[in-house]
Design a protein that fits this description.
The structure is a single chain. The protein is of the alpha/beta class. The protein is 44% helix and 22% strand. It has 21 helices and 22 strands. A hairpin with a 5-residue loop joins strand 4 and strand 5. Helix 7 crosses helix 8 and helix 8 runs antiparallel to helix 9. The relative contact order is 0.06.
Length: 555
């Protein structure tokens, strides 16, 4: 008996046995400690109900079982062994195993499983939530969205908003990943602050988020909320005392008005988001049928463009560059055009983004480079050809080889080729960009910054890189001569370029007044509709001849 009693007292689990009349037979000290049961209640033959009532009084009974006493006393009616997990108000979790004794009583063992239970709950939580922001992850969000759509199908409207941060990648590259993570966590905090407890908030991608408003009452409410989101997410973020500024675009779709299935609703919201970002971002857009039609039209253009090069639908046009001093054509800029068999001439603003998205700019850029060098051989020897090079194309290892092959195939001298790059090219790794420019210039090819002043302009670019020319964007030229502000910008750029040995070209000249002002300010090269619109390659040589005659005669 002593050995049996000692074994019971040294058990890691609590033990309690009651007879068929719910009276205590035996127990161990662990059982008493687990539930803080006083000695006066622990005696052989004591009513087990009193122990259960004490547990309720001392908050050591599960709070989610209002019929706790009846459940515990009723265990003996079960024909099978039973197990329960009690979650106590203080956060403890206890696993209880019940066995029926031959006499009809109950033997129960009680074991702490708090850590295991918490670990299980943590694993479940991590499976459904984003590790960085603790918002719902995409998979869980889509599942919950489906449940909500089913619940709302007959009782009301549901609003979905998809959110994409504007300028986040640039900020992440500039300030580092730690700063980027801090921004994403702050975005999550702001989204929680804007939403109600019942709303669904998720991080569905790198810098993409989504919200479901369960009780949006009308279009006005959702529009007001979307505008507030844009405003809140566009406020500066702080990282270690350094302000970080980004924006946010929001796409809004409602069910059942726009779609009533998960995939379709997500697609409509993404279409609205794309429209918001495509329209300069930092704003919201509500989905409309016109947006869907626009997307369908783009898809059709994408399908057509894939085969445009093979079917000889792409063509290189040329626009002259005029020397301000001599009034002679000194260059021709190569401009890509797409002649669609049904739609006619497609604007580059439509098909160039498509080419970039489809990853075709490298192939097309190589073709344009070869075609431009070939065409330039048909012009008078001093006239150069300027070719636009995309950021993706500029950074490939094949660019130098592409240039060499184009020059070799055509017989064109490197001194007659000029590459035009945008300021975005200069944002990447300094050494890589510098090596690329050096390799290009070693071939005798010059490099110009196109659309200067409209991107991420910085005087440091002009200091770091051996740029040969700056092209002043048409947006500054368009306001001449009336705008003193534009005139000051042009004057400053020309003066700066001259002081560091760079040439300048002004583009977008449409009036004689603009022509006169730019010549007077010392701009060396001029381009615009005043002289000529872009023309097909077969007309370029004749255009050069006629312009030279016309301009020198007029001078």
């Amino acid at each position: 008996a002593d050995r049996f009693h000692s074994a019971i007292e040294h058990m890691a689990q609590g033990l309690c046995m009651i007879n068929k009349d719910h009276c205590l037979i035996t127990w161990n000290r662990k059982f008493a400690e687990m539930y803080d049961i006083p000695d006066e209640l622990l005696r052989e033959g004591a009513p087990y109900r009193a122990i259960l009532e004490h547990r309720i009084e001392m908050a050591s009974a599960p709070g989610n079982q209002p019929d706790f006493i009846d459940r515990e006393l009723g265990k003996k009616t079960s024909s099978n062994d039973d197990n329960d997990i009690h979650e106590l108000p203080d956060g403890r979790h206890i696993s209880i195993s019940y066995e029926t004794t031959p006499e009809g009583g109950i033997l129960s063992t009680h074991k702490y499983i708090t850590q295991r239970r918490l670990s299980d709950q943590e694993i479940i939580h991590l499976a459904h939530h984003d590790g960085l922001t603790d918002l719902l992850n995409r998979r869980s969000f889509v599942s919950y969205l489906g449940d909500e759509l089913e619940r709302k199908r007959s009782v009301g409207e549901l609003t979905l908003m998809t959110i994409d941060l504007d300028g986040f990648k640039l900020a992440n590259d500039k300030f580092g990943h730690a700063a980027g993570d801090a921004v994403l966590q702050e975005v999550a905090a702001r989204l929680r602050a804007c939403t109600r407890r019942d709303d669904l908030v998720a991080r569905v991608g790198g810098d993409e988020f989504a919200i479901v408003l369960k009780d949006a009452t009308d279009q006005k409410d959702s529009a007001s909320f979307a505008a507030r989101l844009v405003d809140e997410l566009s406020k500066p973020y702080d990282f270690e005392g350094q302000p970080i500024e980004i924006g946010a675009s929001v796409g809004v779709a409602t069910s059942p008005h726009d779609a009533d299935e998960v995939g379709a609703l997500l697609k409509t919201a993404d279409i609205a988001l794309y429209e918001a970002k495509n329209d300069q971002g930092n704003q919201y857009r509500k989905f409309s049928k016109e947006m869907r039609d626009k997307i369908v039209d783009r898809r059709q253009l994408e399908d057509s463009f894939v085969h445009a090069l093979e079917q000889d639908q792409l063509e290189v046009y040329y626009q002259p560059l005029i020397c301000a001093r001599s009034n002679l054509v000194t260059g021709m800029e190569a401009l890509l055009r797409w002649q669609h068999p049904q739609r006619g001439m497609i604007s580059p603003t439509l098909f160039v983004p498509i080419a970039e998205d489809l990853g075709l700019m490298g192939k097309i850029g190589t073709w344009v480079l070869e075609q431009a060098c070939h065409d330039a051989m048909q012009w008078p020897s001093p006239v150069r050809v300027a070719v636009n090079v995309s950021a993706a194309q500029f950074h490939t290892r094949n660019l130098e080889l592409d240039i060499e092959l184009a020059l070799d195939k055509s017989g064109l001298s490197g001194e007659r080729l000029e590459l035009e790059i945008t300021e975005s090219v200069l944002l990447d790794d300094d050494d890589k960009v510098l090596r690329a420019i050096d390799c290009v210039q070693d071939l005798g090819v010059s490099v110009a910054i196109d659309d200067f002043g409209t991107g991420f302009s910085s005087l440091s670019y002009l200091h770091k890189y051996p740029i040969d020319k700056i092209k002043i964007d048409r947006s500054f030229v368009a306001k001449l001569p009336k705008s003193n502000h534009s005139l000051s910008i042009v004057r400053t750029v020309v003066s700066l370029a001259r002081s560091i040995g760079m040439a300048t070209t002004a583009e977008g000249i449409e009036t004689r007044e603009q022509h006169a002002v730019l010549r007077e300010e010392g701009c060396e090269q001029l381009q615009g509709y005043l002289f000529s619109k872009p023309v097909p390659a077969k007309k370029a040589a004749e255009l050069i001849r006629s312009l030279n005659l016309q301009l020198t005669t007029a001078a």
